[in-house]
Design a protein that fits this description.
The chain is an all-alpha fold and 976 residues long. The protein is 67% helix and 1% strand.
Length: 976
C-alpha cells in the first residue's frame, strides 16, 4: 500500500521500455548480513580506475569523509518545515541576505555550450542504438514475469484494500461509540415504523454482504501477509518446543538435587545443628548476665552523681549522666523498671547546669572583688578549670557574659574604694556632709587628687593583670578541649583504617557464629549472616566493656576525689571524658569563637578601666579646676595618663581612646587658657611699652644661646647670686647685635613656653601651633598699631614717634622673623606627616612681618622725604656758601644717622641712606629745574657744585657711610 511513497527503484530496462524494480526470487528467510555498497563512488576517469576504487563505508567507518554523507546537498538545503522555498539552510543559519546575493561567474572557467559535447554525442550515438536494439530483441523472461506478477498482485490488493472505509483502519475504532456505530450501521436509512418492509430487508442484506466483503478482503490480505512470513512463524514455534523440552530436563535435575539435599540433612546435619543451638543458648545466657550487671551499674547512677557533685566534679557527673542516658537509649531500651530514669537524669542535668552557672558567677564575684594586693592572681585554679570544662561540656558558651558583668561592677567598686581610702587621710573633707564621690574629689587639692589618680591607675593595672591571668586559664582550657577534639578525629581516622585491615581476621574468628546464623535463619546468605554476627558481637563487647568501665570509673573518681591525689586523677578523667563525649562538645568553630570572645573580654576590661578613669578625670574637671593648672602640673597629669594608657596597651594589646580623648579635651581647654593668659600678658606689655631700647639680662642671653645650641626648651630657673653677670646693651644672636625692647624678650620666653608644652604634651601640637601663630600675629598687628599707627601716643603718652622708635620696632620684628623658622622646625618634629599642612601659618606670618619691616623702612624714608621737600623748597643759589639750606639738610641727616646707626646693622643703614639720598636728589633736581640752574659752567652752577660737595662730604663723613656712592651728577638738567 505504501509503494507510492517508497524511494525510486534501481533502474532496470524491461521489454516495454519501462524501468522496473529488481526483485529477489528466493524464498523469504533470515538474510545474512552483507556489507553496504559505496554510497558515493568515485567517477570513472581515463586512468582506468573502476567504481570499486571508491571508499567503503564499512571498511572506513572510523574516519569520516565526504563519502560518509547519506544525503545529497539539495536534500540538505530543502527544509520542508519552512513556509517559503527561499528560506533554506543557509538563510536559516546566516540570514536572509545570504540567498539574495548574486554569485558572480568565475573568470577562469570557459563558457561551455552544446557544441563542446558534439564530438562525444556523435561517437556514442551508434553504441546507444545498438544497446537499445539488443534490449528489445533479448529481454529476461523470468524477470519480466516476476515483476509483472508481483506488480499486478500488489496493485490488485492495494485497490481492494482501498475499497474498505478508512474508519475500520483507525486505531481508535470502537463500536460502543454512538458516532462510530451510526457510521458503520446507518440505521437512519431504514424505516423506523413498526414492521419490516421489503426495502428494509434488502438494505440490510446489502449492508451485510458489504461488511462480509470487507471482512473477506481484510482476511485475504492478512493471509497473504502471513504466507509471506510463514517461515518466521514456523521457526518461532520450533524454538518454543525446544525451550519447553529443556525446562522439563531442568525440572527433573532440580528434583533429584532436592532429594539428595534432604538425605544429607537427615543423615549429617541434625546432630551438629543441635550442638550449635546449645552454644547459641549459652551465648544468650552470657549476654543476659552482662545485661543484668549493666542494669545494676545504671541503678547506682544517681547516688554516684550526688557524690560527684558534692566535690564539685561537674564534668565527671555530666559524663556519667550522658553515658547512662546513652545506655538507656541503646542497651536498656524498653526496660520497664528504668522508664522514669531518663527524665530524672535530664532534670538532674538541668540542675547541674544551673549549679555550674551560679558557681561560676560566685567565683567571678569573689575573684574580682577580693583585695588587689598580696594575693595570688588566679583564685582556686582547679575549681575554675573544672567549671569551665563543665560549661563547655554543656555548651554554655555565654559564661563570659557573666564574667563581663561582674567585671564592670568590680571596676566601679575599685574607684569608690580608692576615693574612700584617700578621703580618710584628709581632715578637711567631712564624708558625712559631702557624700558624693565627685564632690569629694573636687574638694581635694591638686596634689591630693593627683595621688588619688595615680592610686586608681595602679589599682586598675593590678585589676587588669588579674583579669588577664584568669582569662589565660580559661583560654588554656578551651585550647585543651580544641586539641582533644582534633585528637579524637585523628584516632577515628586511624581506627577506621585499622578496622579495614583487620577485617579478614575478624571474619575467620566469627565463622562459626556466621554458620550458626545461616543454619538458624533460613533465607540468609553467608555474607549477610557473617556481617550480622560480627556487628552484634562487636556491639555487645564494646557496650558492655565501655559502659561498665565508664560507670565504674565515675565511682572511683567520686571515691578518690576526697583524697590528696584526686586532682591529677580528676584532670586525667576529665580529658578522657572529653575524648569519649565528643558529640556533646562544642565544634571547633564554636571553640574558636569562645577564644575570640576571651580576647574581646580582655579588650572590654581595658575599655572599662579607661572609662572609669575618665569618670575620675571629668569629675575633677567639672568646676574647671584642671584648666587652671600650671604648665608643670598639667604636664605631670598628662605624663601619668600617657603612662597608664601605655601600660594598659602593653598588657591588653588594645588601644583605648576614651581616656586619651578625655585628656585631649582637657588639653584643649588648658591650651585655650594657656594661650589666653599669655596673649593678655603680651597685650598688657605692649600697651605699657615706651619703645625704648632695654637692657638684656644675662638669663635672656643664656636663653638665646641655648636656642642657638638646638635646645628649644626653657632652662631651669637659677637662684640669683653675687657672681651673676650684669645686663648687656644688645642681645647677641649668632654674632649679630639686636637692640630690643623688653616686650620682645618676654615674647621669646613666651614662645619657648609654647614649645615646652609641645615637648611635654605632643598630642596638643596642632592646637598649640595654631595658638602660637595667633600670638605672633597679635604681636605684629598690635606693634604696627602702636608704632606706625602712632597708637602709643594715646596709650603710653609718648609725645611723638621718633625715628629711633621706628628703627627699634623694625629690629624687634627682625628678631622675631629670625626665630620663626626655628619654631617651625621644632613643631614639624612633633606633627604627623598628614598634619604638615598647618605649618603654612608660619609662611603667612613671615610674610606679614617682612611687610611690616618694609613699611617701617618706607616710613623712615618718608620722614626724610618730607623734610627735603620742606627745606629745599626755600633753596636759593646765592652766596655765602655752603648755603643754610644745605647746612640744615646735613644736620638732619646726621641726626637721622645717629638715631638708627646703633640700632640697625650696617647693611640696612647703607640701604636706607641710599634710598634717602635718592629722595634728596629727586627734590634737589626738581628745585634746580624750578630755579633754571643748568650744567653750563656759570656762576650759579659753581655755587651749586660747592653745596653738593659740602653735602657729599658731610654724608660720607658719617659712620659706616664712608664708601657710600652718592652719585650726585644726576641732579643737573641737560644744557639747552
Amino acid at each position: 500500500m505504501a509503494s507510492s511513497h517508497s524511494s525510486s527503484p534501481v533502474p532496470r530496462g524491461g521489454r516495454d521500455g519501462i524501468y522496473r524494480k529488481e526483485r529477489d526470487t528466493s524464498p523469504p528467510r533470515c538474510r545474512s548480513i552483507r556489507s553496504l555498497p559505496d554510497v558515493c563512488p568515485k567517477e570513472p576517469t581515463g586512468e582506468g580506475r573502476g567504481l570499486c576504487d571508491g571508499p567503503s563505508v564499512v571498511a572506513e567507518h572510523d574516519r569520516w569523509t565526504v563519502y560518509s554523507s547519506k544525503v545529497n546537498l539539495p536534500a540538505a538545503l530543502n527544509d520542508p518545515r519552512l513556509a517559503k522555498r527561499e528560506s533554506d539552510f543557509f538563510t536559516k543559519t546566516w540570514g536572509l541576505d545570504f540567498a539574495e546575493t548574486e554569485v558572480m561567474p568565475s573568470f577562469y572557467l570557459p563558457n561551455i555550450t552544446r557544441e563542446h559535447f558534439g564530438p562525444y554525442l556523435q561517437e556514442m550515438a551508434q553504441r546507444e542504438r545498438i544497446h537499445e536494439r539488443c534490449k528489445t530483441i533479448c529481454p529476461n523472461k523470468d524477470d519480466v514475469d516476476a515483476v509483472s506478477s508481483i506488480t499486478t498482485n500488489h496493485d490488485k490488493s492495494r485497490a481492494e484494500l482501498e475499497q474498505v472505509p478508512k474508519i475500520f483502519m483507525k486505531p481508535e475504532f470502537a463500536l460502543e461509540d454512538p458516532a462510530t456505530f451510526n457510521t458503520v450501521l446507518p440505521w437512519s436509512h431504514f424505516n423506523s415504523a413498526g414492521g419490516k418492509s421489503s426495502r428494509d430487508v434488502a438494505s440490510s442484506k446489502l449492508l451485510q454482504e458489504k461488511l462480509s466483503h470487507y471482512l473477506d478482503v481484510v482476511e485475504v490480505s492478512i493471509a497473504r501477509q502471513i504466507s509471506l512470513r510463514s517461515e518466521a512463524f514456523f521457526h518461532a514455534m520450533s524454538s518454543q518446543h525446544e525451550l519447553q523440552d529443556r525446562l522439563q530436563e531442568t525440572q527433573r535435575a532440580v528434583a533429584v538435587l532436592r532429594g539428595r539435599t534432604a538425605a544429607i540433612d537427615r543423615v549429617m546435619c541434625q546432630g551438629p545443628l543441635q550442638a550449635l543451638r546449645t552454644a547459641l543458648t549459652r551465648n544468650n545466657c552470657v549476654k543476659l548476665h552482662n545485661k543484668l550487671k549493666l542494669m545494676a551499674a545504671v541503678h547506682q547512677t544517681q547516688p554516684t552523681v550526688q557524690l560527684l557533685l558534692s566535690t564539685s566534679e561537674f564534668v565527671g557527673a555530666l559524663e556519667l549522666i550522658s553515658t547512662t542516658k546513652e545506655v538507656l537509649q541503646q542497651e536498656l531500651q524498653g526496660i520497664h523498671s528504668f522508664r522514669h530514669l531518663g527524665s530524672q537524669l535530664c532534670e538532674l542535668e538541668k540542675l547541674i547546669d544551673k549549679m555550674m552557672v551560679e558557681d561560676f558567677s560566685m567565683y567571678a564575684r569573689s575573684d574580682l572583688n577580693r583585695s588587689l594586693r598580696d594575693e595570688p592572681q588566679v583564685l582556686e585554679k582547679e575549681r575554675l578549670e573544672s567549671l569551665v570544662f563543665g560549661l563547655l561540656r554543656q555548651r554554655k558558651l555565654d559564661f563570659l557574659d557573666i564574667y563581663s558583668d561582674e567585671m564592670i561592677m568590680a571596676a566601679k567598686a575599685i574607684v569608690s574604694q580608692c576615693v574612700a581610702e584617700n578621703v580618710l587621710h584628709i581632715e578637711e573633707i567631712d564624708t558625712e556632709v559631702v557624700t558624693k564621690l565627685a564632690d569629694q574629689m573636687r574638694l581635694m587639692t591638686f596634689p591630693q587628687w593627683f595621688e588619688l589618680l595615680k592610686t586608681v591607675f595602679e589599682s586598675f593595672l593590678l585589676f587588669l593583670q588579674r583579669i588577664k591571668a584568669t582569662l589565660s586559664v580559661v583560654k588554656n582550657v578551651v585550647l585543651e578541649v580544641l586539641a582533644s577534639n582534633q585528637k579524637n578525629r585523628l584516632l577515628e581516622e586511624v581506627g577506621s583504617g585499622a578496622s579495614v585491615q583487620e577485617a579478614p581476621h575478624g571474619t575467620s574468628l566469627l565463622q562459626g557464629e556466621a554458620e550458626l546464623a545461616y543454619l538458624t535463619h533460613e533465607g540468609l546468605f553467608i555474607s549477610d549472616a557473617l556481617n550480622d554476627a560480627q556487628q552484634q558481637q562487636q556491639a555487645v563487647q564494646d557496650q558492655s566493656s565501655t559502659v561498665g568501665s565508664r560507670i565504674q570509673q565515675s565511682r572511683v573518681e567520686a571515691a578518690s576525689s576526697d583524697s590528696a591525689s584526686g586532682t591529677s586523677e580528676t584532670s586525667v578523667s576529665r580529658e578522657q571524658s572529653f575524648m569519649s563525649g565528643e558529640n556533646m562538645m562544642p565544634t571547633d568553630l564554636e571553640l574558636n569563637r569562645v577564644i575570640n570572645n576571651i580576647q574581646e573580654l580582655l579588650y572590654n576590661a581595658s575599655d572599662v578601666s579607661h572609662d572609669r578613669c575618665v569618670k575620675v578625670l571629668t569629675a575633677r574637671a567639672k568646676d574647671g579646676s584642671l584648666e587652671r593648672l600650671s604648665s608643670a602640673e598639667f604636664v605631670c597629669l598628662s605624663q601619668a595618663v600617657e603612662g597608664f594608657v601605655r601600660d594598659t596597651e602593653e598588657l591588653c594589646g588594645r588601644r583605648s581612646v576614651s581616656l586619651r580623648g578625655a585628656l585631649q579635651s582637657q588639653a584643649n581647654r588648658f591650651v585655650h587658657r594657656f594661650h589666653e593668659e599669655r596673649k593678655t600678658k603680651l597685650s598688657l606689655l605692649l600697651d605699657n611699652e615706651r619703645w625704648k631700647q632695654a637692657e638684656v639680662p644675662a638669663e635672656f642671653q643664656d636663653l638665646v644661646n641655648s636656642i642657638a645650641d638646638g635646645r628649644i626648651t626653657l632652662p631651669e630657673r637659677k637662684i640669683p647670686g653675687p657672681e651673676d653677670r650684669k645686663p648687656t646693651e644688645f642681645l647677641l644672636v649668632n654674632g649679630q647685635k639686636y637692640a630690643v625692647v623688653g616686650t620682645v624678650l618676654l615674647l621669646i620666653r613666651i614662645f619657648l613656653e609654647y614649645c615646652q608644652c609641645v615637648n611635654d604634651i605632643p598630642s596638643i601640637a596642632t592646637d598649640m601651633l595654631t595658638r602660637l601663630s595667633d600670638l605672633l600675629k597679635h604681636f605684629n598687628s598690635r606693634s604696627c598699631q602702636l608704632v606706625l599707627g602712632a597708637g602709643a601716643l594715646q596709650v603710653v603718652g609718648l609725645k611723638t614717634i621718633t625715628t629711633k622708635n621706628l628703627a627699634l620696632a623694625s629690629r624687634c620684628l627682625q628678631l622675631v622673623v629670625h626665630y620663626i623658622p626655628i619654631i617651625r622646625a621644632h613643631f614639624e618634629t612633633k606633627l604627623q606627616p598628614k598634619q604638615f599642612s598647618v605649618l603654612r601659618h608660619f609662611d603667612h606670618i613671615t610674610k606679614d612681618y617682612n611687610d611690616h619691616i618694609a613699611e617701617i623702612s618706607a616710613k623712615l624714608v618718608a620722614i626724610m622725604d618730607s623734610l627735603f621737600e620742606k627745606v629745599l623748597s626755600k633753596y636759593e643759589v646765592k652766596a655765602p656758601m655752603p648755603s643754610a639750606c644745605f647746612r640744615n639738610v646735613c644736620k638732619q641727616m646726621a641726626k637721622m644717622h645717629e638715631a638708627i646707626s646703633e640700632l640697625l646693622p650696617e647693611e640696612q643703614t647703607q640701604m636706607l641712606f641710599l634710598r634717602i639720598n635718592a629722595s634728596y636728589k629727586m627734590h634737589l633736581k626738581r628745585q634746580l629745574a624750578r630755579l633754571g640752574v643748568v650744567n653750563d659752567g656759570g656762576p650759579q652752577h659753581g655755587l651749586v657744585v660747592v653745596d653738593v660737595a659740602f653735602y657729599t662730604e658731610n654724608v660720607q663723613a658719617l659712620k659706616s657711610l664712608e664708601r657710600l656712592d652718592l652719585n650726585m651728577a644726576e641732579i643737573w638738567e641737560q644744557k639747552r
